[in-house]
């Protein structure tokens, strides 16, 4: 007979992966403790013992998300030979990642929690920081394009970075609402049509 009070053993990494998927699909507020424990295959005392709180579990799940999901999006931004190609590949990879049917659509960092109050300030702060870091990655690549002479010296890298980050966030909402990959790629085409206006050049 099992000893009373003996902690239930489980694969913590696998449980965290499943919690991430619940948060990704339902957001922080929409994911109940019962949703999480059912997906993770553990009871609530085990959840709290292993992760501390729902908030701590969410923050750890978001960190896992940044490590394992959407990596092709950011590698495309860094590896493309020109700033224009970098932005276009970044958006096209976003369309691909956000529209996959074997996982929740959209982006956990964009959709996980938007409305801050005292009960979830740390969560909103964490997601806001991550969104700012993503915009900063775009900004660095655009500034590199200016430094390398691809873009004019008066190119407004800050405005362009904000614009393309906003496009990506909008694609996340579109995907969550059921937009197809083709529809997301049409958004990419529209966003790239604005490139020549911002760059003041016909260069590809």
UniProtKB/TrEMBL annotation:
Gene3D superfamilies to which the protein is assigned, alphabetical: Homeodomain-like (1.10.10.60), Tetracycline Repressor, domain 2 (1.10.357.10)
UniProt keyword list: DNA-binding, Transcription, Transcription regulation
Keyword Transcription regulation: yes
KW Transcription regulation (keyword) present: yes
Domain HTH tetR-type: residue ranges: 9-69
Residues making up the signal peptide according to the UniProt record: none
Annotated InterPro entries: DNA-bd_HTH_TetR-type_CS (IPR023772), Homeodomain-like_sf (IPR009057), HTH_TetR (IPR001647), Tet_transcr_reg_TetR-rel_C_sf (IPR036271), TetR_C (IPR011075)
Pfam families per UniProt: TetR_C_13, TetR_N
SUPFAM superfamilies: Homeodomain-like (SSF46689), Tetracyclin repressor-like, C-terminal domain (SSF48498)
DNA-binding region per UniProt: 32-51
Protein's recorded name: AcrR family transcriptional regulator
């Amino acid at each position: 007979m099992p000893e009373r009070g003996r902690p239930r053993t489980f694969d913590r990494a696998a449980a965290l992966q499943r919690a991430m998927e619940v948060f990704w699909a339902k957001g922080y507020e929409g994911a109940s403790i019962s949703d999480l424990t059912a997906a993770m295959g553990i009871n609530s005392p085990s959840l709290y013992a292993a992760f501390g709180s729902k908030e701590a579990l969410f923050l750890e799940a978001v960190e896992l998300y940044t490590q394992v999901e959407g990596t092709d999006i950011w590698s495309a931004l860094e590896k493309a030979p020109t700033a224009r190609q970098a932005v276009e590949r970044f958006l096209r990879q976003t369309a691909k990642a956000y529209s996959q049917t074997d996982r929740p659509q959209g982006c956990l960092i964009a959709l996980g929690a938007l409305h801050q109050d005292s009960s979830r300030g740390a969560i909103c702060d964490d997601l806001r920081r991550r969104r700012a870091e993503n915009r900063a990655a775009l900004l660095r690549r655009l500034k590199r394009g200016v430094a390398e002479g691809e873009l004019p010296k008066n190119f407004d890298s800050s405005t362009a970075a904000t614009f393309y980050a906003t496009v990506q966030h909008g694609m996340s909402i579109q995907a969550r609402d059921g937009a197809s990959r083709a529809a997301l790629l049409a958004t990419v085409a529209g966003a790239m049509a604005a490139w020549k206006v911002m760059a003041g050049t016909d260069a590809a």
